[in-house]
Design a protein that fits this description.
CATH superfamily of the largest domain: Vaccinia Virus protein VP39
Number of strands: 22
Strand content: 25-35%
Distance between the termini: 50 Å
Length: 453
C-alpha cells in the first residue's frame, strides 16, 4: 500500500476511536468522518505495519445514516466526532463498538443490550473544561476545544452541547481578562497566567461553579479581582475558585484549589437525592444519563437483595452509595480525593442517610487490607480501569455480585477477562449514552461471583 494512492470502497463500520473502517488491498484503513455504509473515494495518508489511515476525497454515495451536523464547528472542533451520523443509529454503533471491543480484547462472547439513549442530545454537557491561550500580536484570549490531533485551540463562542450560560461566562472571561492583565497560557513557552477555565453547571438549580486554572503556585491581587468580577457579573455563579497548576504537564488541574468568592461547590438534585459537587471532584457530565444509571443500579440491588451490604469503590462524592443507601443495610464508600469525601459526608447528612461509611483512601490499598465481605461491590474506576490487585481483592470480598461501571470499553474488556478467568461470570453489559455525538460510551456490567473465589 502506497501513500496518496486512491481507492473506492464502502465503509464497513466504526472503530472504537470513532473512525470509519474500510479495507483496501486487504489492509484495514481508518478514515475520519466516514459513516457506515458510505461509499467513498479516499486516499492513503499514513501507512503502518498492519493498518493505514486515509482521507475522504469524495462521498460517492452517502449512507442512509448520514445527516447534517447541527454545529457549524463540527469538523474543526474535534469534540463531537459523530454529529454527522443519525442519533438513533449512533446508539447502535456504540453498542457494536462495545461488543467488538469486548470480544477482541477479552475473547468473551457477550452481546451488550441496546444502548439507552441520552434524555438530552443538546445542552447536556454540564461540565466544561476549556483550554485557554492568546493571540500572538493582540494578546486576545482564545478559549475552546482543541482541533483534532493537535493542541491548537479552536475559539468556540457557541457550543450546542453545553448550557448557554457556559458560552456567556467564557465570552465574559475573554473580554475582561485583558482589563486585569490576565494572559492566556503559552504551552510551548510555559508562560502566561490562565491555562484552563472549568465550569460546572447544576442541571437542577442552574447554578454554576467557575474554576480558573492558573500557571502559578499562589494567587495574586489582579487574579483575585478578576475572580470577583466574574462572580459579581453572573447571578447564576455561586462560586469562583482558583486551581494552581504550575507544572509543565498535560494534566488539566493541580492538587490545590482555593475558593475566592462564594461557595466551593454547587448542589445537584437527582434520583431523589441531593449532592454537593466541588470544582475538582468527579461527577458525571450528563446529569440525566447519570440519573438513568443510578436508577438502573439501584433497581438491580432492590430487586435482587434484601438488606444488602454494599461497597462503593472509586466512589467520588459517593453518588452510587448515596443513591442505593435506602435499599441497602449498609454502604461503605472508598475515595482517594479528600474534598470528595468531605462533600459525601455533607450530602449524606442533608439526605438523612445514617448507613453510609466514608473512607478517604486509595481504592486498591483499601481493598487489599479490607476483611469484610459485601453482597454487592460497585466499581466505578477512571478510564484506566481497575488494578490487578484491586480485582483480586474484589473477588475475595464479593459474596455475590460485582457491578462494574466503566467509561472505557477497552479497560472494561480487559478487567472482565481477568474476572472471568478467575471464576466470575458476566451476566450482562448495558450501555448508556453519556456522551451524545461522541465515540465515548458508558457501560454497566453485572457480574456474579463464585463463592469459592
Amino acid at each position: 500500500m502506497e501513500m496518496n494512492k486512491e481507492y473506492i470502497a464502502q465503509v464497513e463500520k466504526l472503530a472504537n476511536s470513532g473512525l470509519g473502517l474500510v479495507k483496501a488491498d486487504g489492509v484495514v484503513v481508518f478514515i475520519k468522518n466516514a459513516c457506515p455504509e458510505d461509499i467513498i473515494k479516499f486516499k492513503i495518508t499514513k501507512v503502518n505495519k498492519n493498518y493505514a489511515f486515509g482521507e475522504i476525497l469524495e462521498i460517492i454515495e452517502p449512507s442512509k445514516y448520514r445527516t447534517k451536523p447541527f454545529c457549524p464547528l463540527h469538523k474543526v472542533c474535534g469534540a463531537c466526532q459523530l454529529q454527522f451520523i443519525d442519533y438513533k443509529y449512533q446508539l447502535e454503533v456504540k453498542r457494536q463498538i462495545v461488543e467488538d471491543t469486548i470480544k477482541t480484547i477479552s475473547g468473551l462472547d457477550i452481546i451488550p443490550r441496546e444502548t439507552i439513549a441520552s434524555p438530552q442530545t443538546e445542552n447536556y454537557r454540564h461540565k466544561v473544561q476549556y483550554p485557554v491561550s492568546e493571540t500572538k500580536n493582540s494578546h486576545r484570549i482564545i478559549a475552546g476545544y482543541y482541533k483534532p490531533e493537535t493542541h491548537e485551540t479552536v475559539n468556540i463562542k457557541y457550543c450546542p452541547i453545553q448550557p448557554e450560560i457556559c458560552d456567556e461566562i467564557i465570552e465574559f472571561i475573554r473580554q475582561k481578562a485583558f482589563d486585569y492583565a490576565i494572559h492566556g497560557y503559552n504551552e510551548n513557552k510555559h508562560s502566561g497566567d490562565l491555562r484552563h477555565v472549568l465550569i460546572r453547571v447544576s442541571h437542577s438549580t442552574k447554578k454554576c461553579l467557575v474554576t480558573l486554572v492558573v500557571n502559578a503556585t499562589k494567587t495574586f491581587d489582579r487574579l483575585n479581582d478578576f475572580a470577583k468580577c466574574i462572580y459579581d457579573e453572573f447571578e447564576q455563579v455561586t462560586g469562583v475558585c482558583i486551581n494552581f497548576n504550575p507544572k509543565r504537564t498535560n494534566v488539566i488541574t493541580g492538587k490545590q484549589t482555593i475558593c475566592i468568592e462564594g461557595n466551593e461547590f454547587i448542589e445537584e438534585k437527582m434520583a431523589g437525592k441531593i449532592f454537593k459537587i466541588g470544582s475538582n471532584t468527579f461527577f458525571q457530565i450528563n446529569p440525566e444519563s447519570a440519573e438513568n444509571i443510578f436508577n438502573y443500579v439501584k433497581s438491580y440491588i432492590s430487586y435482587n437483595f434484601e438488606n444488602a451490604v454494599v461497597l462503593d469503590a472509586y466512589a467520588g462524592i459517593s453518588a452510587f452509595g448515596i443513591c442505593v443507601s435506602d435499599v441497602s443495610k449498609k454502604v461503605v464508600s472508598v475515595e482517594e480525593n479528600k474534598q470528595a469525601c468531605e462533600l459525601a459526608k455533607i450530602s449524606a447528612k442533608e439526605n438523612n442517610i445514617n448507613n453510609l461509611e466514608v473512607h478517604n483512601a486509595d481504592a486498591t490499598e483499601f481493598l487489599k487490607t479490607e476483611s469484610r465481605k459485601f453482597d454487592v461491590i460497585i466499581l466505578d474506576p477512571p478510564r484506566k480501569g481497575c488494578t490487578k490487585e484491586s480485582l483480586e481483592a474484589v473477588l475475595r470480598l464479593a459474596k455475590s455480585t460485582i457491578i462494574y461501571v466503566s467509561c472505557n470499553p477497552a479497560t472494561l474488556a480487559r478487567d472482565l477477562k481477568f474476572l472471568s478467568d478467575n471464576g466470575a461470570k458476566v451476566q450482562s453489559v448495558q450501555p448508556f449514552d453519556m456522551f451524545a455525538h461522541t465515540c465515548h460510551i458508558e457501560n454497566v456490567a453485572i457480574i456474579t461471583v463464585n463463592p469459592q473465589c
